[in-house]
Amino acid sequence: MGKLEGKVALVTGSGRGIGQAIARKLASEGARLVINDLDTEPAMQTVEMLRAEGAEAVACVGNVTAADFADRLIGTAMSTYKGIDIIVNNAGFTWDDVVQRMTDEQWYAVIDCHLTAPFRILRAAYPHIKALHAADKDAGRENYRKIVNISSTSALNGNAGQMNYSSAKAGVIGMTRALAREWGRFNVNVNCVAFGLIHTRMTVSTEEAATVKIDGRDIRVGLNSEMLKTHAQRNPLGRGGTPDEAAGGVYLFCSPESNYITGQTVAVAGNLQ
User: Fold this and answer.
1) Inter-CA distances, 47 with 54, 58, 60, 154, 210, Å
2) Which of 4, 17, 67, 256 has the greatest number of C-beta atoms within 10 Å?
3) What is the dihedral of CA 56, 57, 58, 61, to 10 degrees?
4) What is the C-alpha separation between 180 and 262, in angstroms, rounded?
5) Is residue 20 within 8 Å of 32, Cβ to Cβ?
6) Is the distance from CB of 244 to CB of 199 less than 8 angstroms?
């Protein structure tokens, strides 16, 4: 049996990239998954992949910033599995520019995705978390639930051209600390993982990058090749991370070994600060 056998895990932005790697890691330890992506095709591909690997998985497709999304996501978990054990707020994207050129649309799109959406999801989860904890207590079960919020080293250090992203991800750290104090009485561990450079379609060299469609917007992604080279030179490990390595950092906070750890932020960044 895996360490997460029978646990119900919700992972936003899990149709691709880091989110998919997180979902696969949790499933490999026995978790049952609710998969989310903006688009139906990657969400269902991930669901089918997990099922082929022997896991239970369902999809909740949609934009995490939609007004009804939080209720739909939590409702999917409760109607399908009758429980919630792990929530990973992973969905995100970058839309960069320097402050004098950043529009209100850029600011709010990134803030809403990275900060408002997790807030709504956690708010929607509250009555279920409370009721599930009460049921555990009545049955004499000790059960720790896990919230893992995804931040970034951009929150810890700042990053030129990312005022919106850095601000949102810094807010995620504050959210984590506040919720850890609120939900400790329910045996919920609330922690945060701050990713450094993880190699995905969002972080390829700009010479190779294209645009991605986010909520009807074509947004250019990728990093300057010189920036990527500088990152490798400065990083003690000499490279960026892989999605599987990123997923490993999240799994640490989902495992039983983290039952007495809460309110913490750990950088999964090859020690690049």
Assistant:
1) 11, 6, 10, 31, 26
2) 4
3) 180
4) 6
5) no
6) no
The secondary structure of 119-182 as a DSSP string is: HHHHHHHHHHHHHHHHHHHHTT----EEEEEEEEHHHHH--TTBHHHHHHHHHHHHHHHHHHHH
Catalytic residue among 126, 165, 251, 260: 165
Asked whether 107 and 92 are in contact (CB, 8 A), the reply is no
Instruction: State which amino acid sits at residue 118.
Output: P
CB-based contact 194:156 (threshold 8 Å)? yes
Class of 8-196+243-267 in CATH: alpha beta
Query: Do the beta carbons of residue 172 and residue 118 sit within 8 Å?
Result: yes
Question: Is the pLDDT score of 189 beyond 80?
Answer: yes
Secondary structure of residue 90 in the 3-state scheme: coil
Is 126 in the active site? no
Q: For residue 260, which amino acid is it? A: Y
Residue with tokens 């803030």: 111
Pure H helices in the chain: 17-28, 40-52, 69-81, 104-111, 117-138, 153-157, 163-183, 225-234, 243-254
The model's confidence at residue 205, banded by pLDDT at 50, 70 and 90, is very low
The C-alpha atoms of residue 207 and residue 210 are separated, in whole angstroms, by 9
Q: Where are the domains of the chain?
A: 8-196+243-267
